């Protein structure tokens, strides 16, 4: 039976493809250190688990949840934004619960993009930005993120005829995959840019709580005018080790929240209320406890350890100030990032993500994830060093 053209033209999701390759090797009895995916290795905090268990046992939560969110979740998100960034949100109209950030990002593209419109997508960047835009039939215009510009897009270089068709700009800092952060001046300019050109700014703040050396990431909603033109999506996966819970929050422009809520209501029937209760516990009990700082410290130690090893191998890169990855050049002698990643997987039994998974600007790079237990990370680094030794002689 023929598939729709939009699906037939799609390539498999890169991380599903990586998972399949790793699974085949594991099934063959080979031990693989997976430094390719971004699934936090630790458990969710006990307070989160207790809240989930208690709410799941309550028959009141066995019915359909509210489409937008439970009132408790909306109020907890609004209060957290006030504590975290001093931002005032109306819980009812400016907060939405999502079944994971990826789902919200994809559906936002469907809510705002049409054939002939343009999505401005960072390159390298999270693949879902382009996937959602392409599914909506829009033109994807990739914004090169390069080291010489601090991995920030040069927005003022975009042509006027393109900007007239632009409807959606995706930004994400701390950045996946490079770990770069954005200055306040850049974010203020991005908000002004979107106001001038009538573009919705989607700010994927997935790593707002995974930052290093005292750096604290801003919210785009802090900047004047952002509530008119911006929507921010914050996942619970990274900050609270809740990847399997599939929970995120969207906040910002009342119009954008309403549009995303409408698209979400056509695709699903809300987020399980017990999962939202777990999110409330994360915001009210875990945030402000020792857990977030302990998590940041663990990732920073892994970052420093992995960077030291890579630099000894001659694979240097800027020190990331946020997120949970290293963005590194492939070793000399490899024609492309996919060949390099395949070499490490087949010869060294270490999985890394090829840079081209994140866009054409990823050629010649790979992403090494730090979401791996310390002992496994150490083993993976040893295997990478041993596997590359012949090529680096």
Relevant terms:
Aspartate Aminotransferase, domain 1, Aspartate Aminotransferase, domain 2, seven-stranded mixed beta sheet, 393 residues, alpha/beta, three-stranded antiparallel beta sheet, single chain
Description:
The chain folds into two domains: 5-43 and 291-392, Aspartate Aminotransferase, domain 1, CATH 3.90.1150.10; 46-286, Aspartate Aminotransferase, domain 2 (3-Layer(aba) Sandwich), CATH 3.40.640.10. The protein contains 16 helices and twelve strands. It has helices at residues 5-8, 14-27, 46-56, 71-85, 91-94, 101-112, 127-135, 160-163, 184-197, 226-229, 237-240, 254-267, 273-286, 291-312, 337-348, 374-392, and strands at residues 33-34, 95-98, 118-123, 139-144, 166-171, 200-204, 230-235, 248-252, 325-329, 350-351, 353-354, 365-369. The strands form three sheets. Strands 2-8-7-6-5-3-4 form a seven-stranded mixed β-sheet, sandwiched between helices. Strands 9-12-11 form a three-stranded antiparallel β-sheet. Strand 6 (200-204), helix 10 (226-229) and strand 7 form a beta-alpha-beta unit. Helix 3 packs antiparallel against helix 13 (273-286), helix 6 (101-112) crosses helix 12 and helix 15 (337-348) packs across helix 16 (374-392). It is globular, with a radius of gyration of 21 Å.
């Amino acid at each position: 039976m023929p598939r729709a053209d939009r699906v037939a033209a799609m390539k498999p999701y890169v991380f599903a493809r990586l998972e399949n390759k790793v699974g085949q090797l594991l099934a063959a009895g080979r031990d693989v250190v997976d430094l390719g995916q971004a699934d936090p290795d630790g458990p969710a905090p006990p307070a989160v688990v207790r809240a989930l268990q208690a709410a799941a046992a309550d028959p009141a939560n066995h019915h359909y949840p509210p489409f937008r969110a439970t009132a408790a979740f909306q109020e907890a998100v609004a209060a957290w934004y006030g504590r975290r960034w001093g931002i005032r949100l109306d819980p009812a109209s400016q907060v939405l619960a999502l079944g994971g950030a990826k789902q919200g990002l994809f559906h936002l593209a469907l809510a705002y993009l049409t054939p002939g419109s343009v999505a401005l997508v960072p390159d390298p960047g999270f693949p879902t930005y382009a996937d959602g835009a392409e599914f909506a039939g829009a033109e994807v215009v990739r914004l090169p993120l390069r080291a010489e510009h601090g991995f920030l897009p040069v927005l003022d270089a975009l042509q006027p005829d393109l900007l007239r068709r632009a409807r959606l700009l995706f930004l994400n800092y701390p950045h996946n995959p490079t770990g770069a952060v954005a200055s306040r001046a850049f974010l203020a300019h991005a908000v002004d840019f979107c106001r001038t050109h009538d573009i919705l700014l989607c700010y994927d703040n997935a790593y707002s709580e995974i930052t290093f050396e005292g750096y604290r990431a801003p919210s785009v909603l802090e900047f004047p005018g952002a509530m008119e033109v911006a929507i921010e999506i914050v996942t619970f996966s990274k900050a609270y080790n809740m990847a399997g819970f599939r929970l995120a929050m969207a906040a910002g422009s009342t119009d954008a929240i309403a549009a995303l809520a409408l698209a979400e209501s056509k695709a699903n029937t809300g987020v399980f209320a017990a999962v939202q209760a777990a999110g409330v516990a994360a915001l009210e009990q875990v945030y402000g406890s020792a857990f977030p700082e302990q998590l940041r410290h663990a990732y920073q130690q892994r970052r420093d350890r992995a960077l030291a090893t890579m630099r000894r191998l001659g694979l240097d890169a800027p020190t990331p100030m946020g997120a949970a990855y290293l963005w590194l050049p492939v070793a000399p002698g490899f024609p492309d990032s996919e060949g390099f990643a395949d070499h490490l997987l087949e010869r060294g039994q270490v999985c890394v993500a090829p840079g081209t998974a994140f866009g054409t600007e990823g050629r010649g790079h790979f992403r090494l994830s730090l979401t791996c237990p310390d002992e496994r990370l150490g083993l993976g680094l040893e295997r990478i060093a041993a596997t590359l030794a012949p090529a680096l002689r």
